[in-house]
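Suppose you are handed only these lines of text.
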Amino acid sequence: MPMRWQEGAEKIAGLVRSHDGPLTRELVRKPGRFGLGQVPARLAPDAVARTICGFCSTGCGLKVHLRDGEACNVSPDPEYPVNRGAACPKGWESLAPLAAEDRATHPLVRGDDVALRETSWDAAMDRFVAGVRDVQSAHGAEAFAFLGTGQMPTEELMFLGSLAKFGLGMVHGDGNTRQCMATAVQAYKESFGFDAPPYSYRDFEESDVIVLVGANPCIAHPILWERVCRNPHAPEIIVIDPRRTETGEAATQHVALRPKSDLTLFYGVARALIERGAVDAEFVESHTRDYEAFERFVEDFDVDRVLEATGIDRAAFERLVDVIARGERVSFWWTMGVNQSHEGVRVAQSLIDLALLTGNIGRPGTGANSITGQCNAMGSRLFSNTTSLLGGRDFENADDRAEVASMLGLPVERIPDQRSLAYDEILEGVREGRIKGLWIVATNTAHSWIDQNDFHALREQLDFLVVQDMYPTTETARLADLFLPAAGWGEKDGTFINSERRIGRIRKLQRAPGEALADFQIFRLIAHAWGCTHLFEQWKTPEDVFDLMRRLSEGRPCDISGIEGYRMLEAAGGMQWPVRREATRDGALPDTDRRLFADGRFFHPDGRARFVFEAPRPVEEPTSDAYPFVLLTGRGSSAQWHTGTRTDKSATLRKLAPSETRLEIHPADAARLRVVAGDFVEIASRRDAMRVRVTVTAIVPEGSVFLPMHDARTNRLTFASFDPYSHQPSYKHAAVRVVRAADADGGSTD
Ligand code: SF4
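From them, the structure of the protein bound to iron/sulfur cluster can be written out as follows.
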């Protein structure tokens, strides 16, 4: 049962009193300074608190109902502009993960007997400092790196990245947004001049043509699918996906192309649109660059080449082109089917190219729109201080470093002058012996990273692994040398930024159990233990950090200087960036649904968007006689989230999810393998094998099979290839073989 916050306050006060080290004396003297003595004082015991869901990037508003000071129920917020009273099962079950029996309640340290054992916060901080310093002394400051998340509030992400780099001297850090959004980030930066998803969710309701690529919102973003269903214009809905997903089934056209043939398809569409005269010449002339080179480039993509590469028929191709050409308000949307690709950046940009070509940007119902994954992927992109400096700046730019140093009151030498390694490069650094320590915060690398066996082998090469999480039971936490127990969503304050750039306020509703602390407070403790508190004098509360974010953003594309604080955010029902200071000067609130580029000006210095393009490349692990199937992976159901660390805690969500992992296989392939629904097969890649029952379904195309990512075994099969520009892993293409389990055992059931 979740603890009542009054009881939690007493427990924490007891914890503070029970310590007697120098750190503890400081806590006792000024408990409020560390937030440990604070309770959610503004919430009455039977209040209804408004907050934002902590799972996906849709960013639904939720009402949390309190009884006797305890959060007892959740309902969707009918007044929040994103979801208007709807929520998917994960949102309704938001409280269940907080009450899980395996919540972390104490720091844990690995003893000489190799077991993780409870320890005090003082001892944990001593161990943290000693472990990091040992690695840095022996191998250099760069040898310790951190991996963060898109699940924490922006204020905590900014604190983590700033503490690690400016305080502890680390140079390298990245986050699990590398696994979901890095491709969109890179694509937007190159094409628009800044990482700037241009849309508002209202565009779903205003398009007359909606093109969804590698996206299955019925399952992955169900509230956004509801927005599509509210569209009063009877839109054409085109789903481009190898699988005939739930969304593909509901579409007006499903284009079932071969896996990873999308880039050729979109270049072919561009050529066909140009041939039809569907180019918005005035827009292209006034607001873009490099169109002529793009036009010459796509000449090579004639219909025959497209049909051969994609496997679709001529009528389907012509219909696709015709619908886009005739559409007046065409919007292009993509998610992981594009982002998680060996050439995802160029595919995303091919959709941006189509939007630019046809002038479908900056107007209602249009746009080249990436739907993000995690609840705070956008906050991570702008403020996590990982591969880009705070506010979307550049570590390698001296002016940017000086500006940040001045705003934060830091010596400029504290800011690294080199770009951080990306997630995959950090792990390569471990392989090469350049990275010897990792601090993993709120992400489950040992389940989610691609080619898991390789990651587990790399862990053996680390001298020191710190894991900070809500649960000591995750696959990653179990590998830790030091485990720090963290509060979860609902137990801390801050903000998230959703897919449409909307900043929403999340609320602390109850205390974390035992001695677990909000990540924000853990970072304060670490700063204190390390001896760098003086660098973070201004960082006492999440709202202090929000204020720093406002200052850092001023004059940038992501300007939020006009948001005067959490109370304004709450009153406005979330606010989309940009919100410049002058926009709210007289107490006004900007429109609740805004898109970018209505004036045709992009963020490159010349104000023009770029056509960016490159020849398609073959996948790095093609199918072969030995491994004839393509393995596709993705979300299993709307009741499941990533590695299941939270959704598996809810009995309701477990009932809504499939009771076991099933491999989807096409009926023709099943017949060839002589398996029927429910039979066991062995699926093997060059890296590992797993045994699983099959679901025989035409959802998957012939020659492909599908596994949900929620099973930890799935990523033992995946093949580690990466987009060269975004470094995002390509989870959706590996060569595998499938055989009947009986045949794999060497026997036969015939
Ligand atoms: Fe939460 Fe996303 Fe579901 Fe909305 S759609 S309730 S944000 S998980």
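What can we learn from it? The chain has four domains: 6-99, 108-178+375-488+510-539, 182-370, 629-743. The pocket of iron/sulfur cluster is lined by residues 53, 55-56, 58-60, 83, 87-88, 90-91, 222-223 (CB under 6 Å).
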